[in-house]
Specification:
heterodimer, A: 280 residues, mainly alpha, MetI-like fold, 13 helices, globular, B: 358 residues, alpha+beta, 6-stranded mixed sheet, 5-stranded antiparallel sheet, 10 helices
């Protein structure tokens, strides 16, 4: 393959040089330089200091809490997101457009507003919280509340990635399955779900990654009890306010590493499924 | 298997897609449903499959009423225009799908499914491609995978919706020949939908011409072509010149020659013998005569297309707004009679005349 710089290379779409240049500069300014600064800062701490603050029980608890609640929320969002996408793609009913717009609300709403609304609902004296209280379930001010908030903000990621792929499924493909004797359930399980699987994985990854870093909607409902319901992004703010820059940097670096590892491995899983589909 | 279609109607939002269609299809027959788009041919095919539910009427397979059976229960093989392959499955799994989804009791073992699918891939001449994905195949190959998949469930009838619609001309002809051989080998009752008259006439044992949700004519290709029953069939098959003319006592004049009205016992009501009529003359039924043998009516050559065994000539004739298309033997052209702007005489050797009722 001829390189972009060689004189005899002609690309059909012009502007490769300028667009790749712009992309790199943009990514550099917005993403890479701040992240590199972060890594540099933590490297400046020295290993012993870094190790000490990374193994601090409060830090470990906060990060672990952020990861597992985000994971559970993303897992919950997969079936519900697929269901919402399915309903909107397959059925025509009054109010469908309103529902369609409502799915995006978690994107648009200030997260703090969502957090306060959810807290009001799930607090022991809230509409939903009061019922849960009767069953002996405490939602607000516990990790359960965090999962609820993270589920709320993650839903559109799954719906919006799955929806276009679902729209692409030809009606004739389902009919073909029916003519071959497959029942409705078999058609869904063997034909439709495998076809949307790559989008489901992407949606899951996006919801998960977003939830790990979510701050605004969680802090109100979580109660923020250290070691119990204190999430990593909050601990980061607390360390900053304490002028404990080493502690803050450590939290940030650990979160960065975890997010990056997760996204890379999910990309890898994606590549594998796509290869199986034969249209990589 | 023998199929009886009895007075099927289908309404789509008040618009009738099928208006009372009846048809008998014999066991092992290869039948073409031919018609323009919107003629109801695909709706009829889908009704036989059970993908569409007719508003009224009955469909019988070997005398058994299948009107209330679901698609899956009818045991039909259906090939879709878009092929509708499962893109996340290999060719082998696509073909084996129909066997894999059977209830546990009747489901063959994994090894048997694999063996059967490989056999079918050999039958459709795709041996060795079993591990490919549909996206890695050409259009013609995909169509053959779709056929193998449909055949895997040992269908009682094979239904094909525009089987060659999305393919280029050359592949289309090859596949057509191949499908005929396959049909002769398997002896499976086959119905296919097409809007391509050449395809229908060359491939089918019997051609069913449809228009506006009704059957205009059904018969062997030669019969439908040579003896069109209605004005629509005359116009739809072959390349024709259309002439507005007038009937008087059952006779109409076309290019200086008199022709009797077609004996249509099919038209609505008694045959009309006077009044406006429409005449159809195929391009090869226009005879060109040189100046010395002045018969027919004078015409001027406007264009000549000398490509192929016969030469297509476009002529302007006084009194006719649209140019007349004629097809003459190449020898006639090579004799030097036909040149652009030369004067000639034209005559119709045959015409099908239908009274106009509207």
């Amino acid at each position: 393959m001829a390189s972009a710089g060689s004189t005899n290379s002609r690309r059909v779409i012009p502007g490769f040089g300028i667009s790749i240049g712009f992309t790199i500069v943009y990514l550099g300014l917005i993403v890479l330089i701040p992240l590199a600064g972060l890594v540099l800062k933590s490297a400046g701490l020295g290993w012993s200091e870094l190790y000490r603050s990374a193994t601090d029980l409060r830090t470990v608890n906060a990060i672990w809490l952020s990861v597992w609640t985000a994971f559970i929320a993303a897992v919950i969002n997969v079936p519900f997101g697929v269901l919402v996408a399915w309903v909107m793609v397959r059925y025509r009913f009054p109010g469908r457009r309103i529902l369609d717009a409502a799915v995006d609300l978690p994107f648009a709403l200030p997260t703090a507003v969502a957090g306060i609304a959810l807290t009001a609902l799930y607090a022991p004296n809230g509409w939903v919280g009061a019922y849960l209280e009767e069953w002996g379930i405490k939602a607000a001010y516990t990790p359960l509340g965090i999962v609820i908030a993270l589920t709320f903000i993650g839903l559109p990621f799954v719906v919006r990635t799955v929806q276009p792929l679902m729209e692409d499924i030809d009606k004739e493909v389902e009919e073909a399955a029916a003519t071959l004797g497959a029942g409705r359930f078999q058609t869904v399980r063997r034909v439709i779900l495998p076809a949307i699987l790559p989008a489901v994985i992407t949606g899951f990854a996006l919801a998960f990654a977003r939830a790990i870093g979510e701050y605004g909607s969680v802090v109100f409902i979580a109660g923020n009890i250290p070691y119990v319901s204190e999430i990593a992004p909050l601990l980061f703010i607390i360390r900053l306010e304490e002028y404990n820059y080493a502690g803050a940097t450590t939290v940030a670096t650990l979160m960065l590493m975890i997010s990056f590892t997760l996204l890379i491995s999910i990309n890898w899983i994606q590549a594998m499924t796509r290869r199986r589909f034969g249209n990589g | 298997m023998q199929i009886s279609i009895r007075n099927i109607t289908k309404q789509f939002d008040r618009f009738p897609a099928l208006g009372g269609v009846s048809l008998e299809i014999g066991s092992g027959e290869l039948v073409a449903l031919l018609g323009p788009s919107g003629s109801g041919k695909t709706t009829l095919l889908r009704s036989i499959a059970g993908l569409e539910h007719p508003s009224s009427g009955q469909i019988l397979f070997d005398g058994e009423d299948v009107s209330n059976l679901s698609v899956g229960e009818r045991r039909i093989g259906f090939a879709f225009q878009s092929y509708a392959l499962f893109r996340h499955m290999t060719v082998l799994n696509n073909v084996g799908f129909g066997l894999k989804v059977r209830p546990r009791k009747t489901r063959p073992s994994r090894a048997e499914i694999r063996e059967r699918a490989l056999e079918l891939l050999d039958l459709v001449q795709l041996g060795g491609l079993e591990n490919r994905f549909p996206s890695q195949l050409s259009g013609g190959q995909r169509q053959r995978v779709a056929l193998a998949r449909a055949l895997a469930i040992e269908p009682r009838v094979l239904l094909l919706d525009e089987p060659f619609g999305a393919l280029d001309a050359k592949v289309r002809k090859e596949l057509r020949r191949w499908l005929r051989q396959l049909h002769d080998r398997l002896g499976l009752t086959t119905i296919f939908v097409t809007h391509d008259q050449e395809e229908a006439l060359e491939l089918a044992d019997r051609v069913v011409v449809m228009n506006k949700g009704e059957i205009e004519q059904a018969g062997p290709p030669v019969e439908v072509y040579d003896d069109p029953a209605t004005a629509f069939v005359s116009e739809f098959l072959g390349t024709v010149n259309t002439f507005q003319t007038t009937l008087s006592d059952g006779i109409a004049e076309v290019l200086g020659t008199d022709f009797p009205v077609a004996d249509a016992d099919i038209g609505e009501g008694p045959q009309r013998r006077h009044g406006p009529a429409i005449a159809y003359v195929r391009t090869h039924e226009i005879e060109l005569l040189s100046r010395e043998r002045a018969e027919g009516i004078p015409a001027i050559v406007r264009a000549v297309f000398p490509f192929g065994g016969s030469v297509r000539v476009e002529l302007a004739v006084e009194g006719y707004d649209t140019p007349i298309q004629a097809e003459v033997p190449r020898a006639f052209f090579e004799a030097g009679e036909v040149r652009v702007n030369s004067g000639l005489f034209v005559r119709a050797t045959n015409a099908r005349v239908f009274p106009q009722y509207n």
